Amino acid sequence: MRNSTDSTPFSKSPVYMTVYEAIKQDIVEGRLHANDRLPSIREQARQLCISTTPVEAAYQQLIAEGFIESRPRQGFYVAALPDSYGRFAMSAPHTASRIPEKDYSTGETYAYDFHLAKNDFAGFPISHWKRLLMQTLREEYEELLFYGDPQGEAGLREELAAYLFRIRGVVCRKEQIVIGAEQHLLLHYLAILLKGISPAVAVEDPCYPLIARTFQAEGFAVLTATEADKGIDISRLLQASARIVAVAPSHQFPGGRVMPINERMELLKWAKEQEGYIIEDDYGGELRYIGQPVPALQGLAPDANVIYVGGFSQILAPDMCIHYMVLPESLLAPYLQLRRRLLFEQSSSRVYQRTLEKLMKQGYFERHVRKMRSLYRKKNQELAEALQNQFHDCGEVLNPHAGFHLILALDAKASEQEMIQAAKSGGIRVASASAFYSDQAACEREKRKWFLIGFGGIAGQHIEEGAAQLRQLWEPYLQV
């Protein structure tokens, strides 16, 4: 690493960030090469005349971002990076120190990645997770390598039941919780369970399409029970053939509408009188940035037919592959019968489940939730202000104060797809909002183009410059 006198003085930023930036720059600019061994944490601290704490934090951040890797009993080594990292850093205008963000699912690289659902892993409790993971492997690995409870590890389900009650107001026993690796897999089981209840499922407009498409693949008809961005119309439900309705009462996707209490009570009344079922989609329900998270619908009537669906992808990490659903008592016996009939096993890693159980039991998980809520709240506000400054003369920013994205509604003469492609060509990723409406003309009727601008995965210091670059790329299409 370069001598600290060659980089930004420690007094201008946290010490660990200065160490992190210096090492990262050495890697990107070729002074450190793939497989080069870094000094140990203790040796690096000695060379820089600082404590080991900031060095360890810097190393962990570099590991999390993939710049270096830790090899057991060998030390820390520089990871192999694509050539595009260095080329971009040297050629991008006004962003000489800017490292492009790579989407490893598509292989595409963006200078400013406003992905609508990406996490910020800078705050991931990596040290606690590694320690508890190693403890789990050391103490329990022989047992955990065999088949476990198809419903999920009992200890995790017990911790989860307590957590959901404290944080989301969900009232359940561990016996009601089913854990799985994928949302789709759990919804697939649920669709099979509900096949005899109704030939159709009603959904909100707009909505996240996963539930609707999974049920559709199982032969259900899909109906809409709302006007665009409005509440559930009970009269529509009564007239429809659907006795199953899927809602996201705490944060309707993508606009962020919160279902008011009177509408919640009407929906619960419908379920009781019609012997219907409500699927409550509450992924990321903890991530609300004004006031407290809105309590779950399930907790208002624990004995009602509400199926509560959630997971750890947003608040922790998608790679954990731990999702869950809370079944009402009326579906427990049918679920056990289905499990015996299909002979399925647990799909989510038992090792990760036990590690997460420890993380929750020892209080680290809820501490992480509070930390990430604070971080995302700050980035939510930074993005809202940056977009408002750049686009106030040709549109407005709709901020749901929850989740990982904002909506930017613009007066523009080009199509959303044309503008998204223009942004992509300039190294910026954004998404269309109207694609999630059943009637994609819903946004067009307002004569505005709607875009989803995410803040979860982009570094806070790059939000303002990314918004400015987006304005520059879209200038030819805007109606000011």
Describe this structure in words.
It is a single chain. This protein has 480 residues and is of the alpha/beta class. The chain has 15 helices and 17 strands. The chain has a 7-stranded mixed beta sheet, with helices on both faces. Strands 13-14-17-16 form a 4-stranded antiparallel beta sheet, with helices on one face. Helix 13 packs parallel to helix 15. The longest helix is centred in the last third of the chain and has 28 residues, at 364-391. The radius of gyration is 24 Å and the shape is globular.
What attributes does this structure have?
seven-stranded mixed β-sheet, 480 residues, alpha/beta, 15 helices
| Multimeric state | single chain
Q: What's the pLDDT, averaged over the residues? A: 87
**Which bin fits the share of residues in helices?**
25-40%
Distance between the termini: 49 Å
* Number of H/I helices: 15
Strand order of the largest sheet: 6-12-11-10-9-7-8
Anisotropy-based shape: globular
Uncertain stretches: 2-12, 83-97
Describe how the helices and strands are arranged.
Blueprint lengths: L14 H14 L12 H8 L3 H13 L3 E4 L3 E4 L4 H9 L9 E3 L4 E3 L1 E2 L12 H19 L9 H15 L8 E4 L2 H11 L6 E4 L6 H8 L3 E4 L9 H6 L4 E4 L13 H14 L2 E5 L24 E6 L11 E4 L5 H11 L7 H12 L2 H28 L3 E4 L6 E6 L5 H10 L2 E2 L1 E2 L16 E6 L8 H12 L6
Parallel strand pairs: 5-15, 7-8, 7-9, 9-10, 10-11
Antiparallel strand pairs: 1-2, 3-4, 6-12, 11-12, 13-14, 14-17, 16-17
